[in-house]
Amino acid sequence: MKISNLDRAQTLVEALPYIQKYYGKTVVIKYGGNAMTSPELQEKTIEDIVLLSLVGIHVVVVHGGGPEINRVLARMGKTSRFVNGLRYTDEETMDVVRMVLCGKVNKDLAAMINRTGGRAVGLCGTDDSLLMAKKLEADGLDYGLVGEVVGVRADIIKTAQGAGLIPVVATVAQGIDGGDCYNINADTAAAQIAIAVGAEKLILLTDVKGIMADPHREESLISYMGIDEVPPLIESGVITGGMIPKVNCCVDAIRGGVRRTHILDGRIPHSILIEVLSHAGIGTMITRDKK
How many CB atoms lie within 10 A of CB 245? Predict the structure, then answer.
């Protein structure tokens, strides 16, 4: 379909009030799923991040790297093990996590942003204790070297932002309870970083359309949700499985002062721009009170 110059101009005009609204504000983006593993989607996501930065919106990128970690472990002949959806992390796995997240994925993402015209700096959560954590102890289960975030050095992120840089954060945290470092769930880390820096928005990129009233019908997408609606939807089975911790991260972020949280389908090209800079909006938005 051919797009006319008038259509292009109209798109820019539509974006103007959103650029004005979010200018100088911080948006934290948890980057993962197909948006990270598909080269085409990766390119579109990086373009979104750079564009937001160039129009004056402060972007913080928080990433995991599960598929890459799985591949390295498989080459080592080591089977990935998960407990309640979290990767069980023994010392050997922790070495792989640090190598992959901090040494490869983080630097690759920063380099891609820089090649696309942005200015990014790759940070690991252990850099100057950017992320601080203690060993996760929940439900009487052993998660290994998986941590619970207990502190975020927001000043490090704000210093980078003040220099015009896009912080790209790998989710390995400095241990404060005698542990050297801990593996941190990327959604959890993104929520805690969003709270610490006073973000306007937290965006979680996923591999689904959003939260749906009927998981088998994409047209049943729940576009808006208040945090008080979350517990009954979990109890009724509408929110299940891996979506539960994502939604709980959004709830934590809202209670911590983040104004809006979004669960977006990273399989859609330019999903970030559609949500932030257009009337349309996609995915599920969770706020303190339903619109």
Answer: 16
